[in-house]
Specification:
about 180 residues; mainly alpha; two-stranded antiparallel ribbon; 6 helices
Length: about 180
């Protein structure tokens, strides 16, 4: 045991375990892919979330939006101009929801981006292809409408990332 200041003692084993824990945490965090760390400082995130909010009338998670934005920037050339044009169109129509301006979106890259954003939020992935980028599974909007009645499809009985067994109360058996 080594005596530290203020009468605190620490064994070598505790010191080693603490050091290994700190080092392991550092290695784990430094090896995370870029999409796992939210790009909250991105100047594009605020307009992307504003546009997403108009196209998808739900409470949206900005961390998922940051991951989507990264892929959208790769898949849609001129993303800033496309988002600005769509936001300007929505503003000119005084849109509060997608139905207020969607019919006026011109065919082409603007419409493709709008459809991509809607698809991405509802499915939680970038496309229907096998090599699609997955942004979220648990928070995909397609599952949110029935979440209070039906668990999200998963190997866990009560939904993804919930491996505890839930016992559902059964009705009393009728007596004959």
């Amino acid at each position: 045991m080594k005596r530290l200041s203020n009468n605190v003692t620490m064994s070598r084993r505790s010191l080693m375990l603490t050091g290994v824990s700190i080092l392991g945490s550092y290695v784990a965090l430094s090896s995370l892919p870029s999409w796992a760390i939210p790009a909250a400082d991105s100047p594009q995130l605020a307009p992307f979330m504003r546009l997403s909010g108009l196209l998808v009338n739900h409470r949206l998670n900005p961390a998922i939006g940051a991951r989507m934005l990264e892929v959208a920037a790769r898949e849609h050339s001129g993303l800033d101009a496309l988002m600005s044009a769509l936001l300007a169109l929505a503003q000119s129509k005084q849109a509060r929801k997608v139905e207020d301006f969607y019919a006026d979106i011109p065919t082409g890259p603007q419409q493709a981006l709008a459809q991509w954003i809607i698809f991405a939020w509802y499915t939680g992935c970038s496309s229907a292809k096998r090599d699609a980028t997955v942004f979220t599974y648990e928070e995909a909007l397609t599952y949110q409408t029935t979440l209070d009645v039906v668990a999200i499809p998963s190997y866990g009985l009560s939904g993804p990332n919930r491996w505890s067994q839930r016992t559902v109360p059964l009705a009393d058996m009728p007596r004959f």
